[in-house]
Amino acid sequence: MSDDRIYVRFKGKTLGPLTDTKVRELIRRGQITRMHELSSDGLAWQRAEAFGDIFQKRNQDQPQAVATVPATTSSAPSRGTSTPQNATAQPSSTTSAPIPGQMPEDGVQWYAHVNGDNQGPINSQTLVQWISTGDVHRDTLVWRAGYDDWRPASVCMPERFAPTTAAVTEPDGNSVAQSVSSGGTTSSVPADVCEQFLRHRPWVLMLSIFTLVGSGFAVLYFVTAMVVGADAKWFPRGGSYSVIYGLSGLVNCGVFIAGAILLLNYATSLKTLNRQRNMVHLGLAIQKLYTFWRYSATVFIVFLVLFVGTAVLILVMAAAASNAVN
């Protein structure tokens, strides 16, 4: 392998030639991963992990570099019986996963497998922002320099998720995982539960949009009936009847428009649930759905009472008129 002619290829793009020192620097910063391909002539390509001893030397040198950290940061005195082998073995275990509650290093370059593609390199602040916006879930695979393989984001940054999961067995024998975070809020929702709710969204959107469009045309019709109905030949009756007819129609349109808006709110909560997928947003979506059904039930009961009351009134008036004739 030539020290001053190393080519790098990733997704069809070729960079180089680069020096051996530059390549190692890019590996340290996380800009070259094991998924890249390297070549000494630009023709024959190899996976980066199999190209020379670049990654092997890095994995061997990493524990010694970290081994000096406890000696400078630890406030407790070292025991006289400890050996150098024990001193170097301890840091190697701490590099496999970050300490819970510890902020990620600012200079670390991360890669994340998002939407079926590898995104990066990004810094720690960007990764934390993606976690907060829901673009990176607890099961999203991430990678940084020093990792042997991709790892779930919840393992690399447990303080950003911090759930404590307990398996609960239901009466039917099925085991259900219930997760509660340290702040007392529930954690992620099972994928099958999310999918069942997300299947509603296209139909909810279609129903709400059609209702809004139909109600809009109906509003135009009833307003026209109130304004020109008294003098128009196409309107069966004139005078005050056209005003009463138009007002009653507008009231009905308002009822349907309010229901459509509640459905749109439910569809919006489902969109948020698709991004966040946690129990908090699932609860919000269920609350929106409950509000819609409560409103629909109230409207149905009111219309039913009005209908029955009108029918009874007509029967009473008909009976009174019949008695008056007799």
TrEMBL record:
Superkingdom of origin: Bacteria
Comp. bias intervals (Low complexity): 62-78
GYF domain sequence ranges: 110-154
Keyword Transcription: no
Cross-referenced Pfam families: GYF_2
Region ranges (Disordered): 60-106
Residues that span the membrane, as ranges: 203-223, 243-267, 297-321
Keywords attached to this entry: Membrane, Transmembrane, Transmembrane helix
Compositional bias ranges of the Polar residues kind: 79-97
Keyword Transmembrane recorded: yes
Name listed for the protein in its UniProt record: GYF domain-containing protein
